[in-house]
Amino acid sequence: MGSLPLEGIRVVELTTGAAGPTVAKCLGEYGAEVLKIESRLRGDGHRGGTNPKRWNTQPDFAKLSRNKKSITINLKTERGKQLVKQLIAQSDVVVENFSLGVMERWGMSYEELREIKPDIILIRLKGLGCTGPYAHHVTYGPNLLALAGITHLWNHPGSPASTGEARTQHPDFMSGIAGAAAVMAALLYRERTGEGQCIDSAQIEAGATLLGPHYLDFTINGRDSQPAGNLKTGAAPHGAYPCAGEDKWCAIAVESQEEWQRFCEAMGSPAWTADERFATPLARERHKPELDQLVSQWTRERNGMQIMEALQAAGVAAAPIQDVEDQLGYNPQFEARGLFVTLDEPEMGPIVTEAPPVKASDTPPLIYRAAPLIGEHTASVLRDILQLTDAEIAELTEHEVLT
Fold it and tell me: Model pTM?
């Protein structure tokens, strides 16, 4: 791997879903050895759940579990729990995001883990955190967006409430990235003091950080924010405009009189731009439907990249609304930064996924291993870390401890 910042750090991952796996994935990209504890008795949802045919062929799992090692242990057995505790005793970090109470039932509360490894760092990712009257409620990423109020504000005026647009599970991934940063801070703290700690991460709170201006608007001005769709007060043109091609669009935002003048010049100052209906920001906002129709006539004759380049060169915010095909096609910015990488998955073959988004100059993150086959590293990890013999591993397999 070379020299990465977290080399020598070992992480035990006891997770499901996306939030916990994202923490461990980020740590692995900076060099940590990540031991993903899982079981064939209850397949990870992103691995394919109860369908063994899907366990090694799921794109979500390939993304979330790159760089990790898979160890299959049956935590319904006492010997299985002992094996995990032995691994924790020789590790630095435990990542878990099961329902509140699961770790306690396994005898792996923070207090019990400290008895095993006094300086252990435990991060617990729950939908609503580990404390408070609703902490035991079972949550799901898209529902957390709704509970935080984000789904409401992402809607269009007058449209019925829906969680359909929220299936990207923002709180899971946001809390995962924030959680990885918290773990790194805890590792620095441990280096100075010798003390570990327990990190309580609430996914809903990570998602709620998106709403800061709306909280302030309500607190200071007494305004309860409502869905605005593509509208923005005081800005016109502002929204998505059709481009050349089938169902192709470009986002344009003009938020000042100076930007309006530059926008007009970038379009070649067509005669309609001198119309009194569009002379001021207030006038343009009042006549937005007519303005949008005229802007659309101009955008329909060009593709999204042409519009972006022309308007950005004039100092106007614009960007094509890309789908996956657009992004995976040639994009000079993505190409220059190496946004996409190809991994050779054992059962899927070559797949394309995104690279880590933050690149340190001397220790850039690295994807050095494809996501593991289920149980791929069980024997090697137990031999190398716990010094078990092949005969002992065979006996544990026979007694369904390793499954």
Answer: 0.90
